[in-house]
Amino acid sequence: MSFSICRVQWEQAAPLLKDVREKVFVCEWRIPKKVEFDKKDRYAYHMLVCDDVTQEPVATGRILSTGEISRIAVLMSYRKHNVDHKVMQGLLSIAKDIDLNEVFIYSPLESVEYFRKFNFISAGAVFMEAGMPRQRMVCSVDSIKQANYYLTH
Fold it and tell me: Which residues belong to any copy of the N-acetyltransferase domain (predicted)?
């Protein structure tokens, strides 16, 4: 399988980005739409991955100018193809383009050890978001290991 990945703006690509995120976060994870789609979408940098054969959107993620990486979503049938890796590479490229020194994620608690393998470290106390326990994790842009990444809201 081959994929196209591109940086997109919310105003132009919202229907495609919403399609993927609704299927993953609203339908699969049961996160309320009003939580999933926030005002930050308008200001974020977004990555969109499409299947080259079907031209359908299959994955997305966003990064804010603050360094927050979030809303990484991959359709279930594409998760075995390491599409999340492509999204993360794109987001890290944006982080470098906008001169960020550090990025951070709010990891699901069960994924903390997974992110530690890629040089993310825990920062601060565990907290609840959308009914799920989360841990803030940070990493220097220069020290992130390039590997497969886990879905994160």
Answer: 44-140
